[in-house]
Design goal:
The structure is a single chain. Helix content is 35%, strand content 20%. By secondary structure, it is of the alpha+beta class. The chain folds into three domains: 161 residues, Alpha-D-Glucose-1,6-Bisphosphate, Chain A, domain 3 (3-Layer(aba) Sandwich), CATH 3.40.120.10; 239 residues, 3-Layer(aba) Sandwich (Alpha-D-Glucose-1,6-Bisphosphate, Chain A, domain 3), CATH 3.40.120.10; 145 residues, TATA-Binding Protein. Helix 1 crosses helix 2 and helix 5 packs parallel to helix 6.
């Protein structure tokens, strides 16, 4: 979206837009002026809804991207000009900022692009009560538009910004306050048994540090819980790690780190890491030396199953893109399951709704995303005699990392053995980069029928009709007029997901977020544009890892892959 230009600017501004979680954009577009406008507008909105009061304090944090320091400075100036004081939490994980905000009843501003490439960045603003939700976005946009009009209406002399949109007098940040960091560390050290209980004693954990903002805190918590920490791969430059797009190159990097550790006499039990702002976990089991793979990565949606079981969850919210092993295990356990659109605000909203149903028996409400970020909706005592974990309804990487290690250690089994008890459903995801947003929209427009139906069954029942399927699994026939566009979409999909590529007949289609296709042989393929970047994602589930990998490879193949065919067909 291109914003109206101001008379004193020598460039055409590009307004930041909401993605699946927070604002994202190219670093070249996130000028000081653009950051200032968005932060100031968001804070005005929070004041207008009574979430915070002017004159208070706002928590500010950031990740390790090269552009973050400058954007934090612009955000700090906006915080002060909006009538607040700045608590500089420093370079710290996003969940640590939000945890501290919740505990101190303050709004928070986190400058981070999460897992996306370093030429992009973002700003995530949270309320004093938790994440900004999708229902807040319209109000924030109105206030941002008002601030934009004010700033664009100033003369060159009166504006605090240069013709290039940079602050004439950059603001120095206050000294770093470690309170948010210490609160985050204490949460997990005390939650897993306190300093007197070394819950991970005997484990040796290789921590792939790269450029993750939480790399030091992760190592610190593991050490305080008794694990031996082997740091590796620390980087001075930013490395984007996407836990939903784990490549062979990344796995090869980990095997090399493992080999180096073993050559020095170490014997790691696991490899852990996070994405850039440390709200998404990466956990890999170390396999015996005779296994050619050497490491086993477990996708985040499966990591979450282990955490939910450990916490004794009775109600769960996950995005529609999650591995269907989640549905299978929650059904086995009798746990209520809600499926949402993709993005933490949707999962947060579902958790809030489930929590409001407390009278219906939900006592431990949790959620997680396919990237592994775990959201805790209820106060939970993990270990008898320990400190209960307070709710933290935002993506967090520390809990799923620790919970999986703790569960394996408690049962005296390896991570690989622990994970072997999960439903035998395998997943893989990948992405096609540099797909223009307009192209992705055209693909969805061609495949998503109009109306309020989000899922249908095809060819089921005695009449072979297209049947509408609700959240509980109940179905009812669609009339021919409503069924026609669904049949057209299924034919278009069947041409790309063809028998020649090993796909069976299509039996279900879900369009809650993107297009999720279920096949008669149990395969699942889900096509969805990224909410943060010009990318088209493909998620796959199958009964074997080889088939899940193959589905993604077929999708990403160039030339002639499935995603390329969809692009050629509809765009």
């Amino acid at each position: 979206m291109t914003a109206t230009n101001a008379a004193f600017l020598s460039y055409t501004p590009v307004a930041l837009a909401f993605g699946t979680s927070g604002l994202r954009g190219l670093v070249t577009d996130i000028t000081d002026l653009e950051a200032y406008i968005n932060v100031k507008g968001a804070l005005r909105y929070l004041v207008s809804i009574g979430d915070i009061e002017a004159g208070g304090v706002v928590v500010l944090g950031g990740d390790l991207r090269p552009s973050t320091d400058r954007i934090m400075g612009a955000a700090a100036r906006a915080i002060v000009d909006a009538g607040f004081a700045v608590e500089n939490a420093g370079k710290i994980p996003t969940p640590a900022v939000i945890l501290h905000s919740l505990a101190t009843h303050r709004a928070g501003v986190m400058v981070s692009g999460s897992h996306i490439p370093f030429d992009r960045n973002g700003i995530k603003i949270n309320r004093s009560k938790g994440e900004v939700l999708k229902s807040d976005e319209a109000g924030i946009t109105r206030e941002v538009d008002a601030v934009r009009a004010e700033e664009y209406g100033r003369s060159a002399g009166a504006s605090a910004f240069t013709a290039l949109g940079m602050l004439k007098e950059p603001m120095a940040l206050p000294a770093v306050d470690r309170a948010a960091e210490e609160r985050y560390v204490a949460r997990y050290v005390e939650g897993f048994g306190g300093s007197g209980r070394r819950a991970l004693e005997g484990l040796s954990v290789l921590v792939y540090e790269h450029s993750a903002v939480g790399r030091d805190l992760l190592g610190r918590v593991l050490r305080e819980l008794g694990a031996k920490v082997l740091p590796a791969g620390r980087a001075a430059t930013f490395i984007p790690i996407d836990t939903e797009n784990v490549t062979d190159e990344l796995l090869g990097r980990l095997v090399a780190m493992l080999s180096a550790a073993e050559a020095s006499g170490e014997a790691p039990d696991a490899i852990v890491s996070t994405d850039g702002d440390s709200d998404r976990p990466f956990v890999a089991a170390v396999l015996p030396r005779g296994d050619a793979r050497r490491v086993q990565f477990l996708p985040g949606d499966l990591l979450g199953i282990v955490v939910a079981e450990l916490l004794g969850a009775d109600a769960v919210a996950v995005p529609i893109s999650s591995n269907d092993a989640v549905e299978r295990r929650m059904t086995e356990l009798g746990v209520w399951l809600d499926k949402t659109k993709i993005g933490s605000p949707y999962v947060v909203a579902a958790i809030e709704e489930l929590s409001r149903r407390a009278g219906g028996g939900h006592k431990r409400v949790v959620g997680w995303e396919a990237n592994g970020g775990f959201l805790l909706g209820s106060q939970t005592l993990l270990v008898p005699g320990a400190t209960a974990l307070a709710p933290l309804p935002t993506r967090d990487s520390m809990l799923p990392i620790l919970a999986n290690l703790f569960a394996a250690r408690s049962r005296n089994v390896s991570l690989s053995a622990l994970w072997s008890q999960l439903p035998r459903r395998y997943g893989r995801s990948g992405l096609k980069d540099q797909v223009p947003v307009a192209v992705s929209r055209a693909i969805l427009a061609g495949l998503v029928p109009p109306g309020d139906v989000t899922e249908v069954e095809l060819g089921r029942g005695d009449d072979g009709a297209v049947r509408r399927r609700d959240a509980s699994g109940e179905s009812s026939s669609l009339d021919p007029a409503m069924a026609a566009p669904w049949l057209a979409a299924s034919r278009a999909l069947a041409r790309c997901f063809s028998p020649e590529r090993g796909f069976a007949d299509i039996v279900r289609i879900n369009v809650l977020d993107g297009v999720r296709v279920y096949f008669a042989n149990g395969d699942v393929a889900h096509v969805r544009p990224s909410g943060n970047a010009p990318q088209l994602r493909l998620y796959a589930n199958s009964d074997t890892q080889e088939r899940a990998d193959q589905i993604v490879d077929l999708g990403l193949q160039e030339p002639g892959g499935i995603l390329a065919e969809l692009q050629a067909t509809f765009a």
